[in-house]
Amino acid sequence: MLNRRHLRVKVLQALYAFHQTGGDIKAQEKNLLQSIDKVYEMYIWMLSLISEVANYAETDAIERSNKHIKTEEDKNPDLKILSNRFITTLNDNKEFLVSAKKYKVEWSFEPELVKTLFIVLKNSPDYAEYLKHTGDTIQTDKDIIKFIFKKVILKSSLAEQVFEDKFIFWPVDKDVLQALIAKTFKNFASEDARENKLAEVTGNWEEDREFIVTLFEQNIRHDKEYQTMIAEKTQNWEPERIAMMDTLLMKMAITEFINFTSVPVKVTINEYLEISKEFSTPKSNSFLNGILDKILIELKAQKKIKKVGRGLIE
To answer: Spelled out in words, what is the top-level CATH class assigned to the domain 222-301?
Structure first.
């Protein structure tokens, strides 16, 4: 699921878009929230693809039955996977069905993808072993589905391209997707579809929504003020030498210092230093650390940082 670091990255992306386009705050805020929903949509599309690959066994059996010269296997295909407990309960899961309808999930636009993936599955030793195995349980049924997801779909360059084309933040959100699928495997422990729950996109959406909206809005509202703080601490740096991402990350950190009483200062600094490793320059980590330390000292002296509970300054 999306943790606080992922959510900070979403805000970073929204702020970058806002400053690049000079767009309306409410419009960008809407885009920010939609970017979270896009992660869930991607998750539903992936679950659907897993189901489609497994269920292609029936289409494959029909195609083989229409051959002029049939092998014994063509005449008697093993359709065990069609009764796979994970797949059958997923396809009966009300939440999944409603979400698939909402996002208009339909794989007919990419007809070769499901077929290609099933062929890889069908030719794998793991699938052959699955077909031979007897006494299956919900756990053993999930094992082959995990194989489809991890070793067939995620290893497919075609599937990678399809998701990249459909979801703009696929390279960033891919890890989140894997966590959501892993959570789904854990949640699906019953043969009764009503007892199995899909993964939630965040741990507590009500709190997380307030977190990202506040972080986004306060950052923009105090943009000039925070820019001044940064400029005073970077007088020896030419403005054009400071990466835009570094500036945005520092402003976000300042926003958390001042506005989020329950987020420890050390957590804020560590989070943005980690994000800078992925989204900014190789030297950004030490640069941000140094500037934020100076700004923090000043904010403490001005008594602008007020932390409560576990969120101690030190």
So the answer is: mainly alpha
